[in-house]
Amino acid sequence: MSPATTGDPAADLASGALEAEIADLAEAAGALILAYWRTGIVAGRKADDSPVTEADERAEAMILTRLATLWPTVPAVAEEAAAAGAELRTGAWWWLIDPLDGTRGFVAGKDAFTVNIALMHEDYPAAGAVTGPALGRSWASDHRGTGRGARTRARGGTWLPLAARPRPAVPDMLLSHAVGPAEAEALSAAHGTARWRCVDSSLKFCLIAAGEADLYPRTGPTSEWDTAAGQAVLEAAGGAVTDHEIARLRYGKPGFLNGAFVARGA
User: Fold this and answer.
1) Given this model, what pLDDT does residue 144 score?
2) What does the alpha-carbon distance between residue 49 and residue 177 come to, in Å, rounded to a whole number?
3) What CATH number does the domain located at 9-161 have?
4) Are 120 and 228 spatial neighbours (Cβ–Cβ below 8 Å)?
5) Closest C-alpha to 83, from 65, 66, 60
6) Theoretical Cys-Cys bridge with 241: which of 9, 67, 115, 231, CB 3.0 to 4.6 Å?
C-alpha cells in the first residue's frame, strides 16, 4: 500500500506517495479516454489548428480536480487550459500536464496516444507518469527513499523496474511521424544509425527508458507538456534529454515551447 499524501509535494515525492498517486491518476484518465477510442469521435480545432476532443477536455478536468484536491497550493499548466487562454503560473513546484498526447492518432484510431503528468521543480521535471491507454501499459519515475529509478506495469499488473540500455554500435532511432524522408535520412547520418521508426506521442521517451530504443532527436517545436513526463521517466531510468547546447532540457520557457532536443538512453 502506498503512503498517504500530505499536501507537501517534496515530502510526498520522498515518501513515494506522489508518484504512486500520479501513476494511478494517469491510468484513471486513460480509462476515461479509452471509452471514446474508435467510436467515431470528431475533433474540433484549437486556435493553433491542432485537434481537440471531448476526451482531451474531460481527462484534463479529471486530472486537474484530483491534483488540486491533493496538492492545493501547487499550480498547474495544462494543454487545454492553455489553449483556452487560462492564466498560466509556475512556481517552486508546479504541474505540467498533457491529458491526451497524440490526439491526431487517437482520432484516427491508432494506439500510440498517452496521458502525461509531470511534477516540475523550478525549471526541471522532478517526477512523471505516462500511460498508454490503448497499449495497456504505464511508465513512471520512482524516487522512493534515497534511490532513483523508473518502473513500468501492464494494466492490472505489478510494477517492474525500467533501465535504459547503453548505446549499441548501431542505435535504434525513434522519430515523429511529422519527419519526412529527407530529414529522416539526415538525422540518421548525424546520429550514426541506419535504423529508425516513427512513433507517436511521449511513448518514444518510454521506449528508450525501457531499453527498446536508443535515441529520439527532435528538430521541430514541441510544447513542454508533450515532453516533461516522458523526460522524467527517461532520466529516472538512466537516460537524458538535452537541448541544442547539450544541456538538460529546461522548462517554463516563453510560450511553454521547446526548441530542438535529443532524448538518449544510458
Assistant:
1) 72
2) 17
3) 3.30.540.10
4) yes
5) 60
6) 231
Q: For 48-74, how does the pLDDT look when each residue is reduced to its tens digit (9 = 90+)?
A: 768 889 999 999 999 999 999 999 999
User: What is the b/e burial string over 50-75, where b = at least 16 CB atoms within 10 angstroms of the residue's CB?
Assistant: eebbebbbbbbbbbbebbeebbeebb
Contacts of 176 (CB under 8 A, 6+ apart): 198, 199, 200, 204, 218, 220
Length, in residues, of the chain = 266
Q: CA torsion 28→31→32→38, rounded to 10°?
A: 160
Which of 197, 166, 125 lies closest to 265 in space, CA to CA? 166
C-alpha cell read off for 201: 506521442
**Average pLDDT across the chain, whole number:** 94
Domain residue spans of the chain: 9-161, 172-264
| Measured distance CA(224)–CA(205) in Å, rounded | 14
Cα–Cα distance measured from residue 53 to residue 111, given in angstroms and rounded to the nearest whole number: 16
What are all long-range contacts of 247-252, with beta carbons under 8 Å and residues at least 24 apart?
Answer: 248/124, 250/123, 250/124, 251/96, 251/120, 251/123, 251/124, 251/125, 251/224, 252/90, 252/120, 252/122, 252/123, 252/224
On the question of pLDDT at 145 being above 60, the answer is: no
pLDDT of residue 146: 47
Contact 76, 97 (CB under 8 A): yes
Residue 58 C-alpha cell reads as 474531460
What class, spelled out in words, does domain 172-264 have in CATH? alpha beta
d(CA 246, CA 33): 36
Q: Which parts of the chain fold into alpha helices (H)?
A: 9-15, 17-34, 54-70, 79-83, 103-107, 181-190, 203-209, 224-236
CA atoms of 131 and 233, how far apart (whole Å): 11
Q: Is 39 helix (H, G, I), strand (E, B) or coil?
A: coil
